[in-house]
């Protein structure tokens, strides 16, 4: 009798375990890997970069997963793009005080590096956490508002100085707390901004190994629930030169010097030999991309070792397009991504659906089987397209950045550039003062200066003569860059070289696209020239 009872209990336990494992399998683990400032030619899976880099792990994702060839971003610079990714909403909806006050002052919202996530905002990690996921984050913030950060008195001070070490660690802890407040259970190895803006020049270096260490530690935790990891690299964004990136002191991090180098991914000393063995040149581009790929490889190896890889979906996304950063031209907003799971998706190796980075939140919630019907997002789930459903042909994509707005419907793209009256009519003395203040701050940090000429025109992104450093390669680089209204047929003119806005043959299309933009603007804060007049 005792033997029968023992056997029954064992069978019951096995049945319960089977049900638990089945339920767990139905809700996948999710890793969102977001790189920083990758170019199209950094991807072997794209024609621009075919066979130019040694990135075996990224190549594996592209080969086994689905390449989203028509992935777009709403706002192609780092902060608002991350806002889009983590909230599923347009960044002009940001509620941080600086942004809302700036909108109130100018009448229209000016989306730059100023749209911050607050603890009161509805975020992807918070929604997943509420549904039973364990959430983790490693790497670059640059979007969540962090309170309590202290500026260093001496930019050239030593990271060995006890006071500076304490301040670096305190700033890191403030950043970590901010991550926990928006929904992450775990957060470590964090950069609250790009390395050059941490406050000390000595620590203004990259450390991919340090970020990877935190990601791996999170994956190795004992997880009884499915998990979500937001893994944000600081490379290949600058600084890219060897002595401040892949060949920097491996002990240097955002919290100062470690006691010893980390060994979580292949030693960076092996990077040159591996590149040469692959028949590739050794330079900062190839080295930093292999270094980044090693980080991805460490995550994949950890998933294999923990037995979680069969039940994990990986999104690989670069924060925005780099060919026209700081604009809403296709070179800035078109930005292919990869979605991977073991065995692939029914849609196959590629998907041509027009999708946006505000779509990631509803897509991931869809994957996680979270009911979000009570939540309104600007994005929409593209999981049905991964599962084989045909996407609509005429989806509207919206873009916003600085003083530019745009919409795309099918192959038609309309862009409008509007500056508030006070900015458009800024006199020379005011322009000189704005430029001096901007350049003085950059001189202090030993950063590049775009121009000292206050008569230079503004960019689409910033009201600084000549534009800022982020968009300097794009400023004025398109034939119609300084024209207020721009219309393009992307089927015949994918590089947006022929502005059709003034062509009477396309007047009806222009009117339709302007109407579509006006309709979109009506749902968002702030005015925008005559397309959305101020109500003040």
Please explain how this structure is put together.
The structure is a single chain. By secondary structure, the chain is α/β, with parallel strands linked by helices. It folds into 2 domains: 26-393, 3-Layer(aba) Sandwich (Alkaline Phosphatase, subunit A); 401-521, Arylsulfatase, C-terminal domain (2-Layer Sandwich), CATH 3.30.1120. The protein has helices at 2-26, 56-64, 78-87, 97-106, 124-130, 162-181, 208-220, 271-277, 284-306, 330-333, 360-367, 383-386, 421-424, 428-444, 507-521; strands at 29-36, 66-68, 71-72, 134-140, 186-191, 227-236, 252-253, 256-257, 312-318, 337-340, 350-351, 355-356, 396-401, 404-409, 412-417, 485-489. An 8-stranded mixed beta sheet has the order 5-4-6-1-9-10-2-11, with helices on both faces. Strands 13-14-15-16 form a 4-stranded antiparallel beta sheet, with helices on one face. Helix 7 packs parallel to helix 9. The longest helix is centred in the first third of the chain and has 25 residues, at 2-26.
